[in-house]
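Preliminary data (for renewal application), uridine-5'-diphosphate complex.
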Amino acid sequence: MTPNNEMLVEAAHHEDFRQLLNGTDLNIPDSTGLVWMARFTRQCLPERVTGVDTVTALCASLMEETPVFLLGANPGIAEAAAAALLRKNPHMKVVGCFAGSPQEEDAPAIVNMIRAAAPHLLLVAFGAPAQDLWIAKHLKELPSVRVAIGVGGTFDFLAGKVKRAPEFMRSIGLEWLWRLIREPRRIGRIWRAVVVFPLLVLIHGKHAPKR
Ligand code: UDP
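Predicted structure:
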């Protein structure tokens, strides 16, 4: 999973999501807030690694025969993201792109489509927590998949539909402000990320296990 502040707030309130987050093989800190929280609670989290940077680096290092499937985002976005990745990594093998939806009634058709494509790497962009719950529920029906990642807005960034914050804003942890200005409908999420999350860290952080 690629957790950020909002996802940790979600995990604080929902036992199922907390268990999911605690049970993954790897969690990559996708927000500067998590790095600050780690510092505050004296845990070891050296730096932020975004979903889009993870996917970009992973695809650059894939072996030629590794089949990849991109699921999620609005129609046409996964295809545009795949095209952007293929331009940089012509050796990549994209075996499928599908916008789909995280609704349970759509899952059987999506599972069949992915099974037929037989990817080893599955990238799912339904937004958190839907993407992570979808993976947890359906991974066992997808025997070819060795690695599945919930990648949030990664396809939108790769497709150029959403512009990333300028480097200086990212470096000082203000990417949330950039996204708030460009997408005001995110206000609820941003409130949880920049107000609720730090409060939870202040209240509960001192009890965090040191690592
Ligand atoms: N999304 C989707 N189906 C849904 C809800 C979201 O495909 O029912 C996609 C949305 O189009 C976007 C991605 O999920 O591409 C997640 O976007 P968001 O901005 O929430 O992700 P973040 O990077 O902030 O976690």
